[in-house]
Amino acid sequence: MISKFSAALQISVELGVRQGLVKGIALGSHGITYANWGFMTWYGSRMVMDHGAKGGTIFAVIVCITLGGISLGGGLLNLKYFSEAVVAGERIIKVIERVPDIDSENTEGQTLENIIGEVQFNHVKFMYPSRPDTPIFEDLCLTIPSGKTVALVGGSGSGKSTVISLLQRFYDPIAGEILLDGVSIRELQVKWLRSQMGLVSQEPALFATSIEENILFGKEDASMDEVVEAAKSSNAHDFISQFPHGYKTQVGERGVQMSGGQKQRIAIARAIIKSPKILLLDEATSALDSESERVVQEALDNATLGRTTIVIAHRLSTIRNADMIYAVHNGLIVETGTHEELMENKDGQYSSLVRLQHMENEESNVNKTESNGNISSSIPEGQSLSLSKELRSSSILPVQSGDDFVKTLRDKKLMPSFKRLLAMNRPEWKHALYGCLSAALYGAISPIYSYASGSMVSVYFLTNHGEMKDKTRFYVLLLVGLAIFSFFINIIQHYSFAYMGEYLTKRIREEMLKKILTFEVNWFDEDENSSGEICSRLAKEANLVRSLVGERMSLVVQTISTVIIACTLGFVIAWRLAIVMIAVQPVIIMCFYTQRVLLKTMSKKAIKAQDESSKLAAEAVSNIRTITAFSSQERI
Question: Is the pLDDT of residue 452 over 60?
């Protein structure tokens, strides 16, 4: 296995080394700047000697043109960002200018003055756009009387929840029509239509804000008294009042600070605060335990009084008192009646569902009883009290097990020795030597280039043309030599460090995998040691080490070389000026450091702000049904 892994890595190594070679050629080609400066220097001397041009003017023109060319080259590299921005802008504009087929912002359409609350589905045909080959309804006919509670029951995928989606105009039927008080909902204003309905879903969508703000999503202009009254009607006021901050209590992201029953009661308060004529309950208690279900069901019973209510039922025990029950199968209404009427038909779908659910509940109760019995029998008599005390105390004073202690020690990551990393690169010592020498030599180019270009200023002011020619020839050849030298030294430098880095990366990955394959199986059961984490570690962490002994080491050697040679030249040429310039270097260094710290700090703040806005956008998109149902786009 290791040999196969090594062979696969060898391909990556070869590509990496080749990439280093290409990088050296690319960066070495920048030496053309030195050759170009040499050419302009020579031509400038001819202008001084043959045309009487002033040396200062010549030097100023050379500097201006060179800097302009460098800026132009850097600017051309950024042209791709313009094209990328144009493409991104087109996509953004297309989204912004898109007019949805069902536009909640469209103010056209009727608004009824007096809502009775009678709903009719007449020969409705529908299939989801994402599944055009799977019809949900072929010919659905359904009447929901005003002020009555109607329950829809059926197996998964029968189309129960789709009824609510169609009624709220999340989708439009392909054929047939849906009527509210005899008026097609297509003719009604979408925002007004949804404002007449209150939705409570199986998984209540709470937003990362206070309880009060979450309830106000149902009615934005509601007063605090209305919020409290809605909470009382949903049996939520008592537990909210027990919180230290009351209605200002933050529910956390997706309502994680609340229990399932608490979230559901807040959602009910949000649904009924606007006194909707129609209440939609989409399996509102299916995700709750028995105790929470009882409390929430009481709240729902209060909320349904005097309203047209459509209940999508999962637990059939919650719809016994419904005025009408519709059994749905494959998109068709197969049975209609009250609970008692439907139970009389022993072969009917509803009675079959009731019996099946009753059997499942009995099996669940038996399993719970057996489980509790096994636990009780395993505790000797007289020790249960002490055990319960120990359990309570353990929840207060956490005890760290041996495995946890070992894990804690392992999590205290120590900084690995740089010498140890270099030791792993010992087989490539020749390439390390070549790379460091070439980096040091490349570091000398900038000071020498500065010396040559600066010296040419004095050459332009020489009155002896013969001396001017000789010195010009010397400095031009020096600049051309720097261009050639820069090209080859860059190739050697980047090839050598790439060779070092790639083989170090390969060696680390091989050693890691070889060691990992010897670990015990339970080591892999930990989340941090999953296959995805291990692959990420092999890929990313090894590359981080590679950058340390590659590009970073090259940069350090170059910097040291440049500083030493520049200071030496400065002392040789004009030691007094060199001392003054070195004295002000700390100020320059501090300016660069301050600039970096400020930019980094501002960048962190900007990223944090973007993360917050991204979280809000993600929360909005993930809860789009709730936002659409309550027309809360502006509030978000």
Answer: yes
Decide: helix, strand or coil at residue 324.
strand
The set of residues, in sequence order, having a beta carbon less than 8 Å from that of 95 and lying 6+ positions away, is none
Query: Does residue 544 form part of some domain?
Result: yes
Domain span including residue 540: 2-54+416-574
Long-range contacts of 473-476 (CB under 8 A, 24+ apart): 475/38, 475/41, 476/38, 476/39, 476/41, 476/42
Which of 115-124, 201-210, 312-321 is predicted with the least confidence, judged by mean pLDDT?
312-321
Of 2, 335, 405, the C-alpha closest to 152 is 335
CB-based contact 338:322 (threshold 8 Å): yes
d(CA 363, CA 344): 25
579 occurs within a structural domain: no
For the chain, how many residues are written? 636
Q: Is the dihedral of CA 8, 14, 16, 17 positive or negative?
A: positive
Output the domain CATH number for residue 543: 1.20.1560.10
β-bridge mates for residue 281, sequence order? 200, 311
177 and 316, same domain (yes or no): yes
pLDDT of residue 509: 81
Residue 362 has pLDDT above 70, yes or no: no
Task: Note the pLDDT tens digit of each residue in 107-146.
Answer: 788 888 888 888 999 989 998 888 888 888 888 888 888 8
Which of the four pLDDT bands, split at 50, 70 and 90, describes residue 412?
Answer: very low
Q: Looking at the 3D structure of the chain, how many domains does it have?
A: 2
Q: What percent of the chain clears pLDDT 90, i.e. is strictly above it?
A: 7
Q: Are residues 425 and 509 located together in one domain of the fold?
A: yes
Question: 299 and 160: one domain?
Answer: yes
In this structure, what token pair is assigned to residue 253?
Answer: 């992201």
Residues 6+ apart with CB under 8 A from 527: 533
